[in-house]
Design a protein that fits this description.
single chain, 24 strands, alpha/beta, binds ligand 26Q, 48% helix
Length: 834
Amino acid sequence: MNPTKSNPLPTDKIAPAMANLKTTPKLTPVKQALQNHLIFSSFKTSATATNRDWYDVSAYTVRDHVVARWVKTADAYAEQDPKRLYYLSLEFLIGRMLSNAALNLGIQDELSDGLTTLGHSLERAVELEQDAALGNGGLGRLAACFLDSMATMNIPATGYGIRYEFGMFKQSIEHGQQVENPDNWLRYGNIWEFQRPEATYNIKFYGHVLHVLEHNVMNSHWVDAEQVVAMAYDMPVPGYGTETVNSLRLWSAKATREFDLRHFNDGNYERAVEERVETETISKVLYPNDASASGRELRLKQQYFFVSASIQDILRRFLSVHTMHTPADWALLPEKIAIQLNDTHPAIGVAEMMYQLVDVHRLSWDFAWGLVNKIFAYTNHTLMPEALETWSVELFGSLLPRHLEIIYEINWQFLSWVSRNFPGDADLLRRVSIIDETQGRRVRMAHLAVVGSHTVNGVAALHSELLKTTLFADFHKIYPNKLTNVTNGITPRRWLNQANPLLTALISKAIGDGFQQDLAKLVKLTPLADDKDFRKAFRAVKLANKQRLAAKIHSHTGILVNPNSLFDVQIKRIHEYKRQLLNVLHVITLYNRIRAGEQNLTPRTVIFGGKAAPGYWMAKQIIRLINDVAHVVNNDPAIGEQLKVVFYPNYDVSSAEILFPGSDLSEQISTAGTEASGTGNMKMALNGALTIGTLDGANVEIKEEVGDDNIFIFGLTTPQVAQTKANGYNPRDYYYNNPGLKQVLDMIGSGFFSPDEHNRYQAIIDNLLNNGDNYLLLADYASYIATQDEVGKLYQNQEEWSRRAILNVARMAKFSSDRTIGEYANNIWNVKSL
Ligand code: 26Q
């Protein structure tokens, strides 16, 4: 066997940053740097500079500071050769970089002062940055929070993903309906990315496999494949209060040069250009779908494209430091690398690693499989059957013929092992097989991920238990130690310090700094919940944040809201299981009660935000209903300031930074057992909102932390949901037995909110009354309304409300993503802080 060919590209070409650098690069003082960049990077003067120029100049200035540390970090990693963690994710919902980088580097004040003395302002500059919206929702934002924590905790880690030319679509509301617009985020360039034309890899698709006996070994050759080039773009990930700057490496698809030559030599210029465009569509756009697996070939291409490039890059980096003299030397690989699969989207990595080790580096199958099983771990984010990825064997085999063979071999070995250990259970084999034979042969990516990983985790305690008892019950029996829990978390840097500077200042003044890196310090706020002056200051902060939000609401929707009303907020992707519709039922109930003359109701502003997948018709109907209801309620003179309804358009990371601090009430009302974790629930509580929620996802643990008195829990529990369904749930029983509920549904169904189209919401009503009300809205309605009444009542006692809100903030330690990353690092990755 030939020792592995050494790395085709010398290290110094791949990462110039790694060239030994013993001294920190010199940095100019911030104000001076701003002036220099204005001239030398933007070719402008103070007189001619636009707002955008000021953003650019600020970004260049902060970037210099980032790069100075980035170079040193790369250097330290090269020198110490620690075990590294690679986080593979099809989504990174980063948001804006400028304020976050300035905050993490501790140069926010200097930057702000510099811009002010130059006659500009940081606030205005910041607004010109486009969000990096390379994700749909929770899963993508979690990846971004994890990157922040890993850098802050000095963990040698790299994120790998796709540099989508178009990220998550921009949502606008026209005539009450969602309209999707392309997110052309790179239009004005991206100051935060560094193209690495030297870090490119060939990615193959299609073709076929030859099996050839060579030196008595049967080798496989993937031939006649089409080739695409993956080119790296690096974005820095600066930690907070540390020198560490990690990397997020995103891949962009480029046509190969041969490609051009082939056609140009034929004289077929047009065909060459066409094929080039086709090839480069691989990294064109993010699938805006977080509910159902799309099954599209392009999506599988995206997955394989970025996974193959990442694994080649990981192995190239490993081999540039370690020479493999004999195959046995490869035993070092799992001691130097750990790979986390963010859901099944990168699960093809298991097969790709086998391909690289067996076909390219010629290791034996069994030895390679032993390595793979020490390297990969998989996080599951959903139990919903429609979101589980499967691919038709036919499509898979045409696109990735060798990987299909590899998966069959993995499956064969796995099933043989299962049948030896659980003899006589043919049905078990059928159920756990990576190939589903029941619906016309499909590859089950979740099964591939479970079989290929040493650890599989859910994202909240309840969800991880449900994985053991439902979705992965068979695997739990087969591998009793594989399943575990790591409860999600959020980064306090972005979600407290950056989003809520007023609360941050108040907390710092009260208990000192340091909570940004150690959220457990917030517990020192506990006694202050009983301090009248502190409560008053806390309320003043909340009011200011609500005013800030009210101004945004006005400018985006034209709706005037009263900052003294209760801001009742539900912001998340639009999904039937998340039950925005239940919230609407409450809004209409309040509307009816106000119109009926009920006194002493608490004035409320109910705010919704979130995107619907473009192909998810029911979710779009829900958005339309919210807007129709808002129109009626907001324009009814009988309602006045008692109730306002807002649909906040284009909910994204940047608007979230305004919405969370401005919330009083956090709506976390999914049907129990459906929301894997939720992370918005944590962001709200950290910003001093009280939660109204079901015992679902991380709400369960939030309740444990904040205490039963400081959260509003309602509705059926997960076992009760199962029981209710098993008993033959009939939503009509609730409809006929609850006059308030009946009135609300009748209004929606009869066109009260859609007078120009009376049956517009027939499908919604049908779902609830005739098609089984899958998410049990009617079963939970009464409990929800009663709990909302308690909420309203408590809000009238501002002292008590703020006391509980402060206790929520004080008890959020568990939900820092630093805690989460600490658990992954210790229990799953076995990587150490540097
Ligand atoms: C799959 C196949 C094809 C196209 C798209 C997809 C796809 C894309 C995104 C499927 C799912 C997603 C995103 C899922 C997601 O965001 N899940 C959320 O993850 C959070 C972080 O763990 C949890 O807090 C939420 O409960 C969970 O819903």
